Each structure stands twice: as structure tokens, then as C-alpha cells.
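We emphasize that the prediction below concerns an isolated chain of 71 residues; any contacts that depend on oligomerization or on bound cofactors are therefore not represented. The input was used exactly as deposited, without trimming of termini.
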Amino acid sequence: MVKFHIGVDSESGLVHTLKVTSGNVRDIAEAASLLHGEEQFVHGDAGYQARLAFLVAIANVRVGMPTNVVA
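Result of the prediction step, given as a C-alpha cell string:
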């Protein structure tokens, strides 16, 4: 099984980062690799929640958690 970790620009909708890992890799382990450093707002599901809270603390990035996730 594989897992896709995708970084998408929220304004354009274009993918800027795509990481493919084995299915047992935790989302939080890939969170930082999905960012390009100029984010002003970051969205992520519960798998990224702890890492996103850390980013808020060190990088002044606003975080949003989706309220309606389609799997």
C-alpha cells in the first residue's frame, strides 16, 4: 500500500509538492516536506494536527482544519 502526501496552493489549486510513501508512514512525518516556506495559511486533516500546531508556534502560520472531508 502507498500513501500520497500532497501540498496544494490554496489560491490557484495547483499542486506544488507530491510525496509518495509506504502506507505505514505517518502523515505528521511528512508535514514539513509539503511546505515551501511562504505559506500564510495551512490546511490539514487530523493526521497533521500536532505538526501544524508546531508550525503556528514557530512560523506565525495560520492553520485551518477541514470541517468537511471527503475520503
